[in-house]
Structure formats: C-alpha cells, structure tokens
Amino acid sequence: MRHHVPGTSRETGLSTPRAAGFAGVAFAVLLGAAIVLVRTGLPSGAGGEDISIDEDGRASVNAAVHMVPFAGIAFLWFMGALREHTGEAEDRFFATVFLGSGLVFVAALFGATAAAGTVLAAGQPEAFGRHFAYTLLTTYAMRMAAVFVFATSAIGRRLGVLPRPLSAFGFLVGLALLVVGASVPWSELVFPVWALVISLYVLRTTRGGGRPARHSDGPV
User: Fold this and answer.
1) For 95-120, what is the mean pLDDT?
2) Residue 7 burial (C-beta neighbours within 10 Å; 0-12, 13-18, 19+)
3) N or C: which end of the chain has fewer CB within 10 A?
4) Residues 69-85: what's their mean pLDDT?
5) Other beta carbons within 10 Å of 45
6) Lowest mean pLDDT among 6-15, 18-27, 80-89, 95-104
7) Cβ–Cβ contacts within 10 Å for residue 193, how many?
8) pLDDT above 60: residue 14
9) Could you tell me which of 179, 145, 6 has the C-alpha nearest to residue 72?
10) Among 138, 135, 153, 140, residue whose Cα is nearest residue 194
C-alpha cells in the first residue's frame, strides 16, 4: 500500500492547474499548426470555382486532418482541468456556457476537418469540400470559440485567478472571433494564440507546485 506524502500535489490538488496549462499548450500548438497547414494547402473556399490541389497541398491537408483529433483531445483535457479547478466556486450560468461552447467548438472543428478530408478523396467535388470546411471552421467553430473565450475570461475574473489585463485580452480576442470571423483570413489563429497565452500564464503562476495567484482588484 502506497503511503501518501504530505505536501504533494495529491494532497493540495495542485496538479489540476498544471494539467490545464500543459493541455492548453498542446492544444494551441496542434490547432495552430493544423490551421496553417489547411490555409496553405487548401485554397480558400469562398469561391465556387474548382481549384486543383497539388501534391504538397494534399500532404499539408492530410497532416492537418491527422493533427486535429489530438488537438480536440487536448482541448477537452484543457477544458476539464480548468472546470475542475473552479470546483464548487463556479457560477452555474458561466459554467454552462463554458461547457456548452467548448463541446460545440470541438464538434464543429471535427466536422470542418472531416469536410477538408473529403477534398483528399478521389472523385469528391473539391469546391464544395473547400467551402463547407471553411464555413464550419470560420463561421461556426470560431463563433463557439469566441463564446468559450468570453466565458473563460469572465470566470477567471470572477474567481480572481486571471489578472485584469489578461481578462481584457480575452474579451478582445472573443470579440474579434465573434465579429471578424470569416471576413478576415487567418483571423482564426487568434484562438490558439489566446489558449497559449492563458496556458503559459497558468504554468508560470503554478511553477513550483502553487496554485494560480488570486487577484483582488475586483471583477471587470
């Protein structure tokens, strides 16, 4: 029988924020790389013309298709670890929005990836596949990502675990994803950038086994 050593993360529950940080970094890197690969390998889906995809483009899209499932798994871990960290202090309204938007985001992201994957299949209409993939990614997945960013920033501010500048940054990112969306190419990259910033902040503040510092300057 293993004896518990006082002061370890099992006793203090300190592993949860660090798990969120590591999972968030993995998600940000994988999703960012997948978006870049799709954007460079798959021509824009805005037009209806049939644009052929060369071998390099197919290789890029294929790599992105294989990356996204792992990005989704890391995001679910990131989301679950953050929610566990809030514990009983979470607000039910924000917690519901947080959980719902995160799950819908993953579903839309997987749908967009599946649509991009059909472009690689022989005999599939490439123009339709491109348009469907980009619509799911930029219009639906990124809108849900915006709601998730809003909810996370609000929860972090209310619990005092995010400083005011970082919460403000989150609200700006959410607004950009919600309003700009599909009208500006590459704007979807701000979501993995936000996730990376939040994750690095969590890892920095929990360095040495501590919980994230609480900020008492009041909610936004």
Assistant:
1) 88
2) exposed
3) N
4) 87
5) 24
6) 6-15
7) 13
8) no
9) 145
10) 153
